[in-house]
User: Fold this.
Amino acid sequence: MVQLSEGASRIYGEAAFEVLAKAQELEEQGKNILHFEIGEPDIETPKNIAKAGIKAIQDKKTHYVPSIGITELRKAVQDEVEKTRDYRPDIEQILITPGLKPGIFFSMLAIVNPGDEVIYQDPGYPTYGSVTSFIGAKGIMVPLSEKNEFRMNPDDIKDRITKKTNLIVVNSPQNPTGSVMTKSEIEAIAELAEEHDIYVVSDEIYSKMTYDTCHYTPTARDEAKERTVLLDGFSKYYAMTGWRLGYMVAPHTMVDRLQNFLVSAVSCTAAFTQWAGIEALTGDQRFISDMMKRFKEKRNRIVKGLNSISGFHCLMPKGAFYAFPNIKGTGMSSQECSEHLLYKAGVAVLPGTAFGPYGEGYLRFSYATTLENIDVAIKRIQDSF
Ligand SMILES: Cc1ncc(COP(=O)(O)O)c(C=O)c1O
Assistant:
């Protein structure tokens, strides 16, 4: 009998898309559902960026381009990293990818062997665990505790390092908790990696989405030249999720391998999308501060609302656009509570366990929606208990 590969059975999906499908099924039955499950800004790509993409298509930027990206965008990324991270990578270190996600996949494929140990946050973005499992490596989870405001504690990483540890994945600002690690925590991770000769992949997709705090990168220590890989992208803070555009800054020794993954898997990132990316990086940046001002208002509103629900308790997140309330007081599991909210209140959210076992007792709300929807959702949840 024909059989699919073992590796294919080890890779897994994302609950956000499963909950979205359930919510849409209810909508088809005529139910009104408020969406808090999908992690993308609820606004359109800024006009200047969209226009640059349209112009690029009209200018026939519709052919294959170098698999590592067009030089003009790579140079813009070089300037961007210098501006935002205080070091200037060499142009050869920069690769353009179709969204940030291929950067996770390819950097992990380039670094991790079957049997290696990979350290990552739990709860955390599911792709890290999925790729670890696909490779046949072992995921070593660092539990995030509410007491530490869901920030990964470098001492917990230290306790988990063994001879087999080959990679630490860092994500700050973090999905799903909205936590933002401090400068000293980020520096401690970079030091540990150096001391134990371990790679670090830093997923910084929410780098420009912090409230009253700053974002730090573990890649500053070696300027992504030895053991760290910086991943960032345009999806979230330029509201470009569907354009598929991201970038990697990687050590010279890794770049050829990464380029081969890109050639083999995608050939290249769409040329016109890259031209839109140049406009995003070099054009007016007020879009981001305006968006973050509105997100802050929404964050404050939803956290206050969630704290008014009996059995719920919610910390004030410092980044991204997620709230991660503790729902242990309801007596329900995360799965039961998320289903209760969907079927009894018409509010679609994700169970914390969609992000790992330590997400039990929590829910993730993506508050990229209107203030009105937030108010209605809170009222419906209050009435549903
Ligand atoms: C932490 C994290 N990394 C990566 C991604 C995916 O980014 P992209 O859509 O650019 O591939 C997301 C999207 O939700 C995310 O939350």
